[in-house]
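Lest this sound abstract, we think one record worth quoting, the chain in one-letter code, the fold tokenised, each line plainly labelled:

>
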Amino acid sequence: MATPERKVQNPDSIPWDPNNDSFPLRSELPKAIPYHPDAPKDAAWVWGKDDYIGRLNLLTPLRVFNAAKTEIRTGETVRLDLPLHVPIAPCFGRTPATHRIMDLGGGVAFDDVLDNMNPQGGSQWDGFRHVPPPPLRALLGVMLITVYATDILPDPEQTQTQHPNENLKCSIHYWSSPTEPTPKGEEKRTGGISGRAVLLDYWTYAQSTPGKSYDPYTGHSISFADLLECAKFQGINIAPASQGGDIQIGDILLVRSGWVDRYNDLTDEQRATAAKRHVHVFEPKPSDIKPEGSQEWAGLAQDPLTLTWLHDSYFSAVAGDAPSFERWPSLETGPSGDGKGGWLLHEYVLALWGMPLGEMWDLEGVAEVCRRQKRWTFFLSSAPDIIFGGVSSHPNATAIF
């Protein structure tokens, strides 16, 4: 039987077909996107004019089916969300939710009530409304389909989302099929996020390698070279399959940096103190550092090599266990390398490429199972909250081995 011809995506044939077998490198991205004439460099929102799910398009039924068929072998399951009360003091000035039980009358029945619940206070998906691309920061633009603050923020007197009348561009509810028609009726939606996941357990690698130890509560950068060595330690090749590696189109990347492991070893007082440190977006000058110090977290380096690898691997989504997927605070020059101010990986991953980004995931249990089973891939299923107009969601994620 003849081998089927590989379907290669032409960069300029827009919209792209997610069923193709090969996609353009970052260096080959189209210089113009017809329905986004003002798109900045590195823009890859190429799945259609009214597309709001970005790289989730890569999770085609065939890829999800093949992932389930090859990755579900033992049936062992592991949750990937932290408990809702963790961390006890959320980072970046967010306030914690409180849980109370409401008596419905006479002790006959009870309800849970969660007050001040912010999905980004703990384990989270950052949605496409979370961070705009750099050229549109001042306008609060979101990805390449400009959304203004007046579209995102409800009227001050509005107590709940009035979804039939508001602008829902890039809303996180598109990641999970709603139970009712959307206002326009025809937008592409997806029934959650399911596919093959790849874990890079950098924390275990660093602890096992002389000279590599670090504190996850500092701004330690995990470079692309570090990830290559971690993958070698695990026995995998993190080059894309099209380049002879093990990364498949649509894979979900998970990086364990050790933040949760370190959190588990701290006292409540130490946890609260770390979270209350001053927030700097870019690496502060010594004169800018407050007495309480700055919030610093280990994460991926924001260098061109890391950026290119994240793009060219065609992950459908990425996530880590730290409060920030990238090293925090950002180096001032950022991955643009032009010395004109930093671009966060958030801005590339979310706004320019449409790739869901997860933070503060609980990767402790899944890392233990991966080590025990001597495998670093598994099936992952996530059911994002269906929040019309939503910016973020709990992951509600499970690994299945």
